[in-house]
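> forwarded from #structure-qc
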């Protein structure tokens, strides 16, 4: 079995060595320009078109949870990956716990009013503030998939009311599930902390916009952990300035790195991280890919296959 690997920043020799331990019969090589030798599987992130096109692959693995960059490239170059070749993505593989850490720490930060106390500290003001109650801190998770379910689980354990919104209805204990476009407003109207974990698709681009933000109660919060293109940044800034939003925490941006001139950098109620909410953990990802390849070789149908029509 021949496997080719391409990632612009990962430690290729490490990945090859670790994968080889789990797939001892495979010959694994880092792909370089000009390499047209046969391959059965390709492990990729932002792959050059020439790496994939014209190959009779058994499957392609995206080295992350989101496949938007691959699918958008496919729109321009459909020959890169014919429909007959399945595309897999990483499901959780250590990203769930990272999203839990991020979401819980930020929600607790807002819930315990640390943002307000930091502002008071800057004015050298000693002033206890009224507590918030869990009942007025309903968490609304947009995108109830692998990562959304993990985040829901962790926030439930802190006693917050949790609701989710997705395309199909979920039957999760203690979580109120909203499904489809027609239930989006009802979902938003009861949400105090909006956490975005949607995939980037034609339907979800720009979904956090003026119209939808206006449905949230006043003094709400937005936590964007998914993709920058989900948020209309001017609408978010307007909602912060009008008091509709009390604060926003952003891990992802429509342009990354965020340009120096973006007003988001200096907004007093915006905090940010540079797209690090949940990174690919090599050990877990390698185990998952090796297991999926083994299942494919046995003729089984493993999970994690991307539905290209749905876009995630
Ligand atoms: N910031 C970071 O570091 C980072 C790291 C990892 C992932 N991410 C982002 O997180 C995203 C989610 O990952 P995941 O593994 O949880 O994905 P997933 O398992 O595919 O879950 C996607 C969820 O979104 C819902 N959804 C999709 N389109 C929708 C629509 N039009 N309307 C309503 N709901 C819709 C799906 O609904 P159904 O359940 O009904 O299908 C599903 O619940 C990734 O796509 C990636 O962009 C970011």
């Amino acid at each position: 079995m021949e496997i080719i690997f391409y990632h612009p920043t990962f430690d290729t020799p490490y990945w090859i060595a670790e994968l080889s331990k789990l797939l001892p019969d495979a010959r694994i090589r880092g792909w370089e320009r000009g390499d047209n030798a046969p391959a059965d599987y390709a492990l990729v992130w932002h792959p050059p078109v020439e790496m994939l096109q014209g190959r009779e692959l058994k499957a392609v693995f995206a080295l992350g949870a989101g496949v938007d960059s691959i699918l958008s490239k496919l729109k321009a170059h459909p020959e890169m990956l014919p429909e007959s070749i399945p595309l897999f993505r990483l499901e959780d593989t250590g990203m769930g716990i990272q999203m839990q850490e991020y979401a819980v720490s930020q929600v607790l930060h807002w819930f315990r009013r640390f943002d307000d106390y930091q502002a008071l500290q800057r004015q050298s003001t000693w002033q206890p503030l009224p507590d918030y109650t869990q009942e007025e801190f309903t968490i609304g998770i947009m995108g109830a998939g692998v990562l959304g379910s993990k985040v829901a689980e962790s926030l439930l354990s802190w006693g917050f009311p949790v609701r989710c919104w997705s395309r199909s209805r979920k039957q999760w204990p203690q979580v109120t599930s909203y499904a489809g476009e027609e239930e989006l407003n009802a979902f938003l109207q009861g949400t105090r902390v909006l956490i975005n974990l949607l995939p980037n698709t034609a339907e979800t681009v720009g979904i956090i916009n003026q119209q939808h933000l206006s449905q949230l109660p006043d003094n709400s919060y937005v936590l964007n952990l998914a993709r920058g293109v989900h948020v209309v940044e001017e609408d978010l800034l307007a909602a912060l300035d009008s008091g509709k939003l009390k604060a926003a925490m952003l891990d992802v941006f429509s342009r990354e790195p965020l340009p120096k001139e973006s007003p988001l950098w200096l907004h007093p109620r915006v905090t940010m991280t540079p797209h690090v909410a949940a990174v690919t953990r090599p050990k877990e990802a390698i185990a998952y890919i090796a297991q999926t390849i083994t299942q494919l070789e046995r003729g089984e149908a493993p999970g994690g296959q991307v539905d290209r029509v749905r876009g995630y």
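QC bot note: The CA atoms of residues 178 and 187 lie 6 Å apart. The pocket of NAP is lined by residues 65-66, 95, 143-148, 165-168, 197-201, 203-204, 225-227, 251-252, 275, 277-278, 312 (CB under 6 Å).
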